[in-house]
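Before we proceed, please read the two lines closing this message. Let me know whether the structure tokens fit the sequence:

…
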Amino acid sequence: MQQDVILADKIKNGITAPKGFRSAGIHCGIKKSRKDLALIVSDLPATAAAVFTLNKVQAAPVLICKKHLKESDTFKAIIVNSGNANACTGERGYQDAVTMADETAKTLSVKSKEIFVSSTGVIGEPLPINKIIAGIHQIVKQVDESKHISTAEAIMTTDTFVKSTSSTFILDGKEVSIGGIAKGSGMIHPNMATMLAFITTDAVIEKNIFQKLLKDVTDKTFNRIVVDGDTSTNDMVIALANGASGIDPLQPQTESYRKFEEQFYQVMKKLSIDIVIDGEGATKLIEITVEGALCDEDATKAARTIALSPLVKTAIHGEDANWGRIIAAVGYSGIDFDPDKFEIIINDVPILKQKYFVTLPIEEANKTLKPRNINLKIKLNIGKGTSTVWTCDFSEEYVKINGSYRT
């Protein structure tokens, strides 16, 4: 039973919950006043795993991170700026990203290829690199285990709250921790979005195993969230494992690995859902589960199509249980299903049963959409495929936020 204990007293330590990690967030002058530079440091050389945006337009930091991931077996730090994406900035932008890595490495007395670089903010504007260089020399003196909140604050753009979590548990008789921070609230869509996420752990895990784990869990979390259907140029999830817990190396198919994977999933799921809750202008969190599809892939396609539908999202915002919009979305998702077997359940209340049987008067059905958290379940009743996706509603505020983003 000892292995199943979750040490809740360390749950608030965020990115620095694992042993041997320090961090900080400061204001270096990219933004007018809010924090805009973050640094995460591992005291020990860390194994790394990463996934990146699939957008064909990729910002300079993404290119640098991919290069370093190929060149180095271990990493020491992640340097992140917000307020400027350093995307679509050509050769100057690439050299600025190189400079960020070089300066960080210099201050930590390590190699540049041991540094990950990340940026988020407005696309197409030159990076104020001199301010960032000065900030790097300042922030490196401030990192410690207590600055996890300021670190999370420094990567925010249109976010309205900090996205930070951690889990500390017992594995093989030793204390192991996983921590994470994320940013994102708009331009959110599967296959990465306008989001950054950084995960730390003091577990011991080999590079290829870690990479597969991160990819698999990302596909079940960050690649299952939708706000508005847009993907961006800078998106990444980077995970570092420094081995400071002293456990034996994690191996797939073992009980220890299974328990670690579950906690890894819970940390990333929490950050993913926080991004959706903070969706620009959002008033409702919507969990969409599709059951009974021919396969899991079809269930995911259907759930994502519903999550992307502006008509569904606006109807839920207006608390209009318009089931026609939901079945229509599945109808153009491209999957095979029998409309006669289609069922809809909202917050455990059946709304539509098979053969288009409507269970409630519209006024009663609409009441199921009043809560802030909406559980929308679709039953296709033709197979065993299932999938869950998270999204939010569309409100007038979303238009206001994005209509004035640069001003």
